[in-house]
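S., here's the first fold you wanted:
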Amino acid sequence: MKWIRKDVFNLAIPIITEQLFVISLGMINTMMAGHIGAEAVSAIGMVDSVNNIFIAFFSALAIGGMVVIAQFIGQGNIKKANAAMQQALFSGLIITFVITIIMFIFQGPLIAMLFGSADHKVISNAHTYLGITLLTYPLITIDLISNGLLRGAGDTKTPMKISIFMNIINVILTYTFINILHMGIMGAALGIAIARVSGGIIILFVLLRGSKILKLTNVKGFKFDKSLLKLIFGIGIPASIESLLFNGGKLITQIYIVDMGTVAVAANAIAGSVATMLNVPGNSLCIAATALVGNHMGRGESKEAGSDLAYITKLSTFALIAIALIFIPFAGKVTSLFITNKEIIHLASTVLIVNSACIPLWSISFVLPAGLKGAGDVKYTLVTSIIGMWLFRITLGYLLGVVLKFGLVGVWLGMIVDWLVRGTLYLIRFKKGKWKSKTVIKLQTTSSY
């Protein structure tokens, strides 16, 4: 097997670089908040479990635009690719404004309903953090959807550059607000909020100016196109439902982690941040898989799509195993960078070691379905995700963590069983090849609009 594939690496390396900076944005906030106290770390972890549902929803919606654009470009239909970009961006903005208004009105009752059993200091910090970060939802949407569309067009360098800039802004501002101005949790929220707003404005400017392929034109004369929206939401809605149910399931696990106490909540937040950083190559290759498979399917190259997806999945598996082997001996030292509480450090490092030991299961659970979505096979991935999350992760997590009193470790073991189940189902789907008949846009002989 040829391990160095130029087409894959040209697409993946900028995404990996970008993801490193994106994840570091969250990690830096968690580290700095850790020096404010365990209550701040717990509050950020709780609020991020809510914010991440929103972020994941629009990331999934962006997949609809990404797949459609990738397949149009695969056909050489640049005009329709640009039209699809406008439809995805403007429809996404309308939805996000509605969600932002609803969240702003009901943020207090939402925190009380989900995390009412948490310590009152944690609840107070959570109100502050959510109240500021939710106001950036529209800019996050612009950033997420625009980046997804650019990747679908094969441009991974522009999102990378913007993410690097965002993270530099975040580091400078968060450090200033927390360590110099002593603004506490509000400083952490303002740092990440201003960084996100900056990124959204810049990416919008890039699209208005025009990238190599995509350009936002005739904004004043924009009209919704039902046929293009049907294609975009035909992929985006199932992917978004999958994302909502998946992250909603994670939120449920967060609720019963809250009942385990501040130590468990803080350890879970820290372990989640570290695990996400360790998994940057895997998450990046998910994005590459969607774009590459979409391009191939647009050209009618189902065999090449399967070959690329198998290669990317194997590459991700070996990369994650290598990272896990390096990380395990240093788990305690890494978690101690976030906080000084020894009990939290021990618990966070324990679940991270469990996670690292089982990481070979991750790629078939997440990289494979990312490629299947690129082909348009979103309904199967939706059903499989529901089975894994709701029948296994939530149920077993509660049984092991709460009923059998394994605590946070039990919750993470439930997650690993979820990986095993969904990975098996995705592997069966991939081997049978039914996903190859799910092309979103039928191959056309003309590129006229």
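And the second, which I think is the more interesting of the pair:
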Amino acid sequence: MAGLLDQYTLAGNSQALSMVTWMAEYFGNRVRNVITKYTIERHWLSLNEETGGMNDVLYNLYRITGDQKHLVLAHLFDKPCFLGLLALQTDGLSGFHSNTHIPVVIGAQKRYETTGDHLYKEIATCFMDFVNSSHSYATGGTSVSEFWSDPKRLGGALTTENEESCTTYNMLKVARNMFRWTKKMMYADYYERALTNGVLGIQRGTEPGVMIYMLPQGPGKSKAVSYHGWGTKFDSFWCCYGTGIESFSKLGDSIYFEEMGSSPGLYILQYIPSTLNWKTGGIRIFQKIVPFSSMQPILQISFNISSTEASSQASTLNFRIPFWTVSSANGAKARLNFQDLNLTDPGSFLSISRNWGTNDYLELLLPISLWTETIKDDRPEFASVQGIFFGPYLLAGLSDGDWDINAQNSSAISDWITPIPQLDRFPLVSLTQESSNETFVVLNSNCTLKMAKLPKAGTQSALHATFRLLPHNSTMQSFQTSDHNYLLGQFVKIEPFDLPGMYLTHQAPNNSIIISVYAEGNSNSLFKVVSGMDGKSNSVSLESGKQKGCFLYSGVLHSKGSKVQLMCKQEDASFKNAVSFSLKNGLRQYHPISFRAKGVKRDFILEPLMSLMDEAYTVYFNITGWRDRNYT
């Protein structure tokens, strides 16, 4: 029905209006018959199922037709047992199915806009406050196993079945309406958070048609491992596919908001590369973003603003200064036509009123802060459970479940979180061998090494098959894996991608290679890169730095199994093949936004949750000795 109504309102299709009017007549008769035969209570009970945004579309239809039957039918989908609690300003969300009831709130918002009944504005405001304060994860999403749990009890609700994607889609609608009514920054902040962390990562990389139903939040969970996991391109069509597709089709619908009046205004909420032809204000805006990273943590936005009229009228542009940046005293800047402006504090709007010219240029330089936020759970045992953010990006730690960080002696968040330096981002390699027309890789399996078939990009296995080569007592320069001669003769430590500070370590010959923390002077973690013993120009062998003549050895080329161990030199061809590896570009690379966090038992690689595919991660960390909302 909503789609048909859009066909009429956006494309002028009168047949679509006739169809949706007929459907409203049909449903109206059905509802009246149920009430007449079984009582109205039976009808209210039927609304416990996912009836979608029926009240919303019916209020929209009434605004077009003026037919009182459409208004009455819309009222009959305003679920009283749910909206009544909100009218009393009572948080009774616990136990309600989230995605059944968020659309009811959207319909209540439309009732306020249609009838002017302020009660429904208050209902929506109260609902948004309850969700934000007590029921939302660090992502901005809500629900566990599709339902709301008790308020401020999310610490015990971190599982694989968190945050149904549909709920985030609908919460964005609620937040968008709230901002339109109030222009309050809190709703713009929510929209940015939920869009960035709860929408952009629900598709697997750039694969069309591969989406998730739930967004797991528990320690060591993965988007790929839940009741639904990733869907398939042609055989999945859950509700979250419909809302997911629509979410990606309207990424630009909440960048700019217009304020009408004698002097028109425009609010710029989201910093997303875009072009706007603002007809009311008579100007065209080109917004550009300079790429940033954890090593270059400044959001640099430029606006080319040009009048589209011979004599432009005065108008006001309001630029959102996010709460996660810093003040002008600490480095934030705004310039208009290369002249510095007085920048407002974070969490407010920079308002500029003027007659815009034909070639005005505005630039914002907003340093991006690291900050933390405690989970919404008021029990003392969860006070240390916190999410870590880089500006609007929720950072997830690559972890199979470990989540402990001790920040007791830290005065700044930068004491225990540091960006991955550019020099540390290479060389990332994967060690491969060929056998029977198949490619095998060295892979970390529970801190021992084994050989496995070449994994698919984005998988946990691809991450575990990527290692960083660190020179011993020298500086590693960038090199191409196709030309590894630079490495020959050097001693290196080999660090698993997701275990910074831990290295491949050999034991006695004929024993497995393990992964352990490097101890200064321990040559068991040193390997000398030598020419491949198989004699091929593109291979290398890794000789023990402690036991000369012993090498990293794989059984993949013969029948001795797949484990990787240290074996001493033999002259037969099978041995020479088993200790010869090709250095390939790492199957996994660091995201431009990558950090290292100091853990209790191990350190963590942090990357934006939105960027992850099948990797195991933890969204929340158990951080002792640290208060949330600490910026740096």
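Why I say that: The CA atoms of residues 539 and 582 lie 5 Å apart. The first strand starts at residue 256 and ends at 259.

Talk tomorrow,
H.
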